[in-house]
Design goal:
- With about 550 residues, this protein is α+β, with helices and mostly antiparallel strands.
- It has 15 helices and 19 strands.
- It has helices spanning about 65-70, 125-135, 145-150, 190, 265-270, 290-295, 300, 325-335, 340-345, 380-390, 410-420, 440, 465-470, 490-500, 505-520; strands spanning about 45-50, 75-80, 90, 100, 105-110, 170-175, 175-180, 220-225, 230-235, 255-260, 280-285, 305-320, 350-355, 400-405, 425-435, 450-455, 525-535, 540, 560.
- The strands form five sheets. A six-stranded mixed β-sheet has the order 13-17-12-16-14-15. It has a five-stranded mixed β-sheet with strand order 8-9-10-1-11. A four-stranded antiparallel β-sheet has the order 4-5-7-6, with helices on one face.
- Helix 11 (about 410-420) links the parallel strand 14 (about 400-405) and strand 15 (about 425-435).
- Helix 9 runs antiparallel to helix 11, helix 13 packs antiparallel against helix 14 (about 490-500) and helix 14 packs antiparallel against helix 15.
- The longest helix is centred in the last third of the chain and has 17 residues, at about 505-520.
């Protein structure tokens, strides 16, 4: 779960004292506001800093976007509506259960549940789900997940339903059952279909790339109004059968998304908790550093705080197609001053420094991965960097750095990276890219420069949802490319295939950890930090807890009192 190609979250806290708010290793569900009285009805307000890059389910691949799409386009499976570890388990959603498979996990079958209806009352069919997945292969439907292209038989050559109306033979409908024939053994494919890529789209309502502006719903809510970069208003889909929903409570009658406020403004509104803001949650907006002490000292504020590890890893991708010399990439790794970088964002409370790419909340993570000895020397080693540069006469001493801009913290973090590299005699030219187009821009290899800031959160609790997406050289594509390092290493590619085939999950996770270490040896990326979430919500919001997958208030459980 973007960036996971997930959206890059805003910065969190500045004060080291705030670390006490999340000292434990599991998310804090916070106090249930609104006196804990669950109520069906009312309007829930949502504040977000910038517009969703996409709401078209086949193009959605950000944490906030996926949370939103669960309201209008339920995928085949979904994460359970529960805090903590239970919320990382899956259940059936549009499907009746989590699927069945053949002996070698190459054919997965899902049975659609009865009663799914479009917002005009027509029944949702298996063909609608098949069509939805098939449209994701089109060059017009960009920036979404690529698992379907990697996994499905023929997916590497299929050009999408618009050019090939016959469809993809490896997706087979039989009554209310949909079967996916895979080109390799995938033992966790039922987690893959939690992604909105596997949502339904009705052919007669598909407006291709314009579908991004007005998705036709078969979920519990439908879009009443969408004004880009300003607002989205939702009301109930009157044909939704709440009694058959295994995931969502769907308490509010309406949702009002307000887009464009600065993170500091959002925090200030949540602190003051006045009027409509009492019935408000946020997406992708951590509390700002300036108000940490206030939140910590005030029991009422603290009772409205959701906090905990959020599963994101921030990292710098080094463009391997441009920076081919491994010693050069290693030199850049030694040159970065991670301490200054973290200080620029607010200090240890915003996260812990990273020397690997797989986050600590995943079973494949290893604390021991530290190829360059930077756990004890997070300020880097500019002298070592200079030595490696001397061995690499073709190594660029001037590079261009793509980074997301839009708030002061982004700019400060970029400046810290520039300063660190300068110590080793490396000049970094900054290329700022607006927040709302960043993922789409750096997802095009032709548009990428030498280095870029990225973040990633696993799409499900496995190293497979990290390594296979970020480092498989066979999935590099002209757009929507998650392999920002453009790494294409035959040993890593083979290791990915082997880990997928391993039937013992514990052994498979060890193999994903081995690949993480191999990636670091190749210096394909420079891990920076593992992050934390700190989210405030309004005093009349009920049922709020930190979603362990999407790292915000869980949209499936909240209501207003």
């Amino acid at each position: 779960m973007s960036d996971r190609k997930r959206v890059l979250r805003g910065v969190a806290l500045a004060s080291a004292a705030a670390l006490a708010l999340s000292a434990c290793g599991t998310p804090d569900s916070g106090g249930d506001a609104g006196n804990g009285k669950e109520h069906r009805g009312g309007t829930l307000n949502v504040l977000i800093q910038s517009d969703f890059e996409h709401i078209d389910p086949q193009r959605t691949y950000t944490a906030a976007g996926e949370s939103f799409d669960r309201l209008i386009a339920p995928a085949l499976t979904a994460y359970k509506n529960a805090p903590g570890k239970a919320g990382a388990e899956i259940t059936g959603d549009s499907a009746t259960d989590t699927g069945s498979h053949n002996a070698d996990n190459t054919v997965w079958t899902f049975t659609l549940r009865d009663g799914l209806k479009w917002q005009d009352g027509k029944a949702v069919t298996c063909d609608d789900f098949k069509y939805g997945v098939e449209r994701s292969f089109s060059d017009l439907i960009t920036d979404g997940a690529d698992y379907q292209k990697q996994y499905l038989v023929g997916g590497d050559s299929y050009k999408g339903i618009y050019l090939d109306p016959a469809g993809l033979p490896s997706i087979i409908c039989s009554g209310n059952k949909i079967a996916f024939h895979l080109n390799k053994s995938i033992n966790d494919f039922n987690y893959t279909v939690t992604l909105p890529t596997f949502s339904a789209v009705r052919k007669d309502k598909d407006t291709k790339e314009k579908y991004d502006n007005n998705v036709f719903s078969y979920g519990p809510y439908q879009i009443d109004s969408y004004v880009r970069s300003k607002s989205i208003d939702l009301s109930r889909n009157k044909f939704w059968d709440q009694a058959k929903d295994p995931v969502r409570k769907n308490l509010p009658d309406k949702w009002a998304f307000a887009i464009g406020a600065d993170e500091t403004v959002i925090t200030d509104r949540m602190l003051h908790d006045q009027g409509p803001d009492q019935s408000t949650i946020t997406l992708g907006a951590n509390i700002s550093p300036q108000q940490v002490a206030q939140v910590q000292a005030d029991p009422k504020l603290k009772s409205r705080l959701l906090s905990g590890p959020d599963g994101f890893t921030y990292y710098l991708s080094i463009n391997n197609s441009k920076i081919k010399d491994v010693n050069c990439r290693r030199a850049y790794t030694y040159a970065i001053d991670k301490t200054t970088y973290l200080t620029a964002l607010g200090g240890p409370a915003v996260g812990e420094l990273a020397t690997s790419i797989i986050a600590p909340n995943l079973p494949a993570h290893r604390d021991s991965i530290d190829v360059y000895g930077l756990q004890k020397m997070p300020q880097g080693d500019p002298n070592k960097a200079k030595q490696l540069l001397a061995q690499s006469p073709t190594c660029p001493r001037t590079i261009t750095f793509d980074y997301r801009t839009g708030n002061t913290a982004d700019d400060k973090a970029a400046a810290a990276i520039v300063a660190g590299m300068a110590r080793a005699g490396i000049t970094v030219k900054l290329n700022p890219i607006a927040r709302n187009v960043y993922i789409a821009t750096v997802g095009k290899p032709a548009a990428q420069h030498d280095m870029a800031i990225n973040s990633w959160i696993a799409d499900w609790p496995s190293g497979s949802a990290v390594i296979s997406q970020l480092f498989d050289g066979r999935i590099i594509s002209a757009s929507g490319n998650p392999n920002r390092s453009q790494l294409n290493d035959s040993a890593i590619n083979a290791g990915i295939d082997a880990a997928y085939k391993e039937p013992d999950n514990a052994k498979a996770q060890m193999m994903w950890g081995d690949l993480d270490e191999k990636v670091q040896q190749d210096a394909a990326v420079i891990p920076l930090r593992f992050t934390k979430a700190y989210v405030l919500y309004g005093s009349k919001v009920t049922g709020a807890f930190l979603d362990p997958v999407y790292s915000d208030a869980d949209l499936c459980n909240v209501g207003v009192s």
